[in-house]
Amino acid sequence: MTVSAIPIEVLRLSYWAGGTAEERETLLGGYLGRLERLTDPELLGESLLAGLMHADPAVRRRALAATAALSPGLAPDAAGWALADPDETVRTAALGPAAGAPALRALLASLGRTPETIAAGTADCATAADAAALRAARALLADADLTGQVLADLPVPLSADRMPNRLSLSGMRHVPAGRLRRGPRPDQPRTWGDPAEPSVNETSVEGFYLDAHPVTNADYDAFTADVTEHGHLWCHPDEPRDTDHTRATVDDPRCGADHPVTGVSWYDAFAYAAWCGKRLPTEDEWERAARGDDHRRHPWGEEFRPELARGLHSVSTPDGHGADLDRETWLRVLGETRVDALPALTGPVGSVAGDESPFGVRDLCGNVWEWTATRYLDGMPFTPRFGTMDPGELWGEWSAEVAIRGGAWSSPAALLTAVGRAGKLLVTRSPEIGFRCAVSEAEATSR
Amino acid sequence: MSSPQRVARFRFTGTVGADERAFYERHGFLIYRNVFGEQDIQVIKEDAERLERDTLQGKIPAEHRDVVLEPSYDEDGKPSLHRLPYFTLYSPRTRDLVERRGLDALGPGLLGRPAWRFEDVIDGSVWQMKRAKRTSYNALDWHLDFPHDHPVAPLVNVGIYLDAATTRNGCLVVVPGSHRFPPRRLDPLGLPLVVEPGDVICHTNNILHHSGRVLDDTCRATLYLYYAAGERPAAGTTYTHTAGEQFATLFTDASPESEEALR
Questions:
Q1: Which residues pair with A421 in a beta bridge?
Q2: What is the bridge-based pairing of β-strands B83-84 and B209-211?
Q3: Do both A439 and A342 map to the same domain?
Q4: Cβ-count burial of B218 within 10 angstroms (0-12 exposed, 13-18 middle, 19+ buried)?
């Protein structure tokens, strides 16, 4: 449709940028009168849309009423849009004719609540329009067929309010609140892989839930499929635009569906966690889950047991050495290892009997390093704000390094501990780094 | 949680280990905890009181008196100094203490080559005191001590903390890694280094750093030693700090307030 086909009264109203109420009423009079004379349904629809999307709420209200009177086919959608209108006078006007799927979709979106919350009447209501919207939504939800149809069409979580539907504590282990002594205990023998003493030795950790094992490739691929279908709904706001979340190992047949996901950046891990209503664990949470109340060196106890941790000794024969390599030897062996020629890198999660922390969390040491939500150098919460920076500029930026924990299939015994730590740039995608998710007790019970 | 939780702190054993050297090279700073005990600190503080008194009484040669920071004056007009250059040159007990504790190993250990300590050149070792509000010195804006191409560089700044340094009393704030990569931000993100009395902070000559304002009623004294591996100038060569600061202003806001702090 060309602009020349749009009636002049509609164009005048569309281009009216505000003025006196008298001017508006004059323009509205011409607009509404012209609408009544239009016989072409397409032209009528375009002209109504001009009023429904107008910047002035009074115009939107009148256009809504005109739509109900002149275009029954467009009216449900128009009411649906108006139900989410930021101006409550428009919203209230739409509540009267609210009916059908568009209205229910709009009410669910504008109320931002699950149907269960609406049916129970526990939604947050602050104004009369909120209360009226709740009443209208409850009336529509009483129609089971309509509700089923609308819920079936809903995209996967539209808002944080719907996350509870996705969050499941199944497959997670509860870690009660307690004290954490960071780093090796004074009575524990130290190795070259141990970190230096931290500035604050002890801290308390609130209760939380942690995934029993790292996120698998199958889990992660389901997330990337959802991103493909619904867009970047769960991503960190600082993430570079149009990030492709596909894991870097997607074409590597050695990375089985039940292996821990690797080849993912911190941004990828953050988005995955948000997708399932969780978050990344802090470094303190990770360490407490691994070390228990007795601050043990490994999840299973004090001594290193090579059969319980998938390290370099599991995927390669390190030059006749065991797992216990010194730094120089390890670096030499690893440097000479052709990773692409190794028959296997990661192994299936949860497959090693006895590899379990006091809280029942598995695969914490070995297999993959795990991203945390903690900045590496100072142990403070990691809050990226690098959106305007080119990834190449992040090298050397200390605040862009995230703490990773646990060691990987490429690590020697000295790094396969619950006390070791390392830092990696948040954009790094490595075949040795994966992650798991956490939920606070408070987050779990409030949903 | 408001102050750093996991900043690494090392134990000084008289030599610099591979882990310490690697950390210093990567991040441009290093913290040794508990190098000096209470009695050691008392020795240095007594030397500072004596040297301040001697300076104010004119017993120290003019060329060895501070010209960088103005004195402060109390309500009765009594002056106090914020900076005492050539500290170990005039404080044999402190100099002996530094040597007995093995700090001279820090220069060659961290720089990886022979190094010499500032003693009779470029202000020597420097005692510096930050006092609470309404004094002539309670903050220092972003700066470098010496640019990388300064004739004396590379160089290690070794700060012996005689009082606790906290985020409330303007502790040292560094931009880790800025000695290797120029900061990418107009407003660099700094890491506050909170330490206890007796701790030692080492940092490179060209790491971007500052110290914030004293917000509480505490005072904070530090004795700085400098170990250089570059050229050794003739005795009496004076200190100049403008080169590093002018370099730093390329990356930071040179507001009137910050320029004031640099004077």
A1: A405
A2: unpaired
A3: yes
A4: middle
* Residue A363, number of CB atoms within 10 A of its CB: 30
The answer to whether B19 contacts A203, with C-beta atoms less than 8 Å apart, is no
Rounded Cα gap, residues A116 and A138, in angstroms: 10
Of B10, B189, B191, the CB nearest to A196: B10
Domains and CATH numbers, chain B: 27-262 (2.60.120.620)
Flag whether residue B189 sits within 8 Å of chain A, measured between CB atoms. Answer: yes
pTM of the model: 0.72
- A155 and A146 in contact (C-beta within 8 Å)? no
In whole angstroms, what is the distance from residue B256 CA to residue A191 CA? 51
- A196 Cα to chain B: minimum distance (Å): 5
Give the nearest chain B residue to A397 (CA atoms): B177
Residues A292-349 have pLDDT tens digits of 999 999 999 999 999 999 999 998 876 666 778 898 888 888 888 888 899 999 999 9
Tell me whether residues A199 and B194 touch, CB distance under 8 A. yes
Residues of A in contact with B27 (CB under 8 A): 377, 398
DSSP letter string, A212-273: SSPPBHHHHHHHHHHHHHH-SSSS-TTSPTT-----TTTT-TTS-TTSBP-S--HHHHHHHH
CB contact under 8 A, B6 and A200: yes
Q: Are A324 and A176 members of one domain?
A: yes
Q: Which secondary structure element, helix H or strand E, spans residue A45, and what is its range? A: helix A41-52
> pLDDT at residue A164 above 70?
no
Amino acid at B140: L
d(CA A68, CA A76) in angstroms, rounded, equals 8
As a whole number of angstroms, the distance between CA A283 and CA A270 comes to: 14
Residue A246 sits in which domain range? 172-445
